[in-house]
Amino acid sequence: MSASGKTREVSVGESGLGPYGQIIVAGRHVLAADEAESLGGRDTGPDPYELVMSGLGACTAMTMRMYAERKKWPLTRSSVQVRHSKITGADGKPLDRFERIITLEGNLSEEQRQRLLEIANKCPVHETLTRGSEIQTSLA
Description:
Blueprint: E1 11-14, E2 22-26, E3 29-33, H1 48-71, E4 77-88, E5 94-105, H2 110-120, H3 124-131
Antiparallel strand pairs: 1-2, 2-3, 4-5
Helix pairs in contact: 1-2
């Protein structure tokens, strides 16, 4: 369920562009996904992890923008760079690490900047990734 309580859905199917090319339909939006040429794909779109990182970065920027607008703060622009790596957790198990580097532009006080950093950690995609998810799979 989304924050609004509605179930959301996307459809993904093979594009026919190489062995791994995919077409993603999300509402009225159409995107591509693929693997890099080095992995046998044709690089016709972002790979699945780049799509996850894109969602995290977009959600972070949007959440900060909504908060700044509500507070009427002078945030003129923000950008979010996201990096992903696989690491070994303290328990020895594999762990995914997402690193965000946030750039804030505008005549913001240090307190406002720090509050926007806190708000970034409240974006719904951040919360989903840190909380974990349940995935149910079935055949059509």
